[in-house]
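Q: Sequence in, structure out?
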Amino acid sequence: MPDFVVKQQVQRSWAFAGTGSYKNLDRLVVAVSYRTTGEEDYRLLSMNGILQNDPKSKSSYEEAGGTSSTGEFVTMLAIIFKPESETKFTLSDSDLIRQRKALVFDFETIREKAQEKIAYSSGSGSPATTVSGIKGRVWIDRKDGRVLRIESEATEIPVTFPITSAKRIIDYDWVTISDGKYLLPSLSDVRLVARESGKLIETRNVIRFKEYQKYGSDVKILDDDLKPEPEAKKPN
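A: Exactly. Output:
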């Protein structure tokens, strides 16, 4: 996989946990630079259609506050598939995804091996962090053995930690960068449930990955980036 830059269009919303009645919070455009050494740099380009002038990169969307998500490019794949994780796989189904025949495997990695990081910020001071295990399902292309989708859920979250649930779906698709084709994230749906003032609040980030380019290219804001998103609806 080459060094690249990509634009993330992020729609953030919230709901009382279990209701599925999401209300839009804000929409962000974030530029991400990825290096094959594993470095990911994030820069907030716009918030609710307003261009941001601070050029300093951050390791998350902390300039905008609220829920953020990183690691879609390599970290999640590494946690699941590296030998040290000792992930247990069980063939559970077959499926057709984006016209590709796929095998579906259930997987699980214990907390000690996965070390999946979860962070929570209440808006004041440094965020609280913990690590968890991970379980879920992965769709593998029958033809070339590549990952087409991952659905994951954090396990073994300490009961004293503010976040009670962390789920993520990542869809992968083929993109062209400098005349080469690579399988990279196209869409991510991240949902966290946290205790806030005695209530369980669910946040949802829908992230669309647009305009993959060779590293060093400028990520530009287009008119489509500044248009409001429709109100987030309850998923089927």
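The helical segments are 75-81, 111-114, 223-226.
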